[in-house]
Amino acid sequence: MADHYFSAEPTSADVRRTVQARIWGREYTFSTATGVFSRDRLDLGTSVLLREVDPPAGGGTFLDLGAGYGPIACALATEATEAQVWAVDVNNRALELTADNAKALGVADRVHPVLPDGVPDELRFDEIWSNPAIHIGKPELHRMLLHWLSRLTPDGLAWLVVSKNLGGDSLQRWLQEQGYACERHASAKGFRVLRATPIP
Questions:
Q1: Largest distance between two CA atoms of the chain
Q2: Which of 24, 64, 68, 94 might form a disulfide with 73, Cβ 3.0–4.6 angstroms?
């Protein structure tokens, strides 16, 4: 069976390379590899998210859901110098790359790459950032989002980027039906950037 970027243990050879990205006015060089999401560049959806949403100010506890090789987590930790950032992925190679990239950027003490069950049960998040894995299928996507969104603080918020053609508008309606205030923050390059918050 061919590898997917959401495979826990990619069977493809671990061939490393680097990619360049400009995020929030800074130039980054990230290590990537075969068997992880968007190994050849910063993917378009993540680029849209990071261009349309300003970095958080101050500290907090943040979650990068579906971290891949860690561009969101590393950029959050770089910009929010007092933040703790949890980078969650099911792909162990992606988590290794996130750890390597955080170390290279000097933020390894505040970036925590873990499998989903590695997040402490009591931990709550001030912000969630995600380019969610739509291709895992709608039922699993919904379960994943409900699980992690339920761990927002009462004043927390989630930033999600989803392709319009892959259901960005229907996901917005679904989140509203689940009891979240969800608005379209931006639309660019065929993607919707959604802002979701708990309703008291």
A1: 48
A2: 64
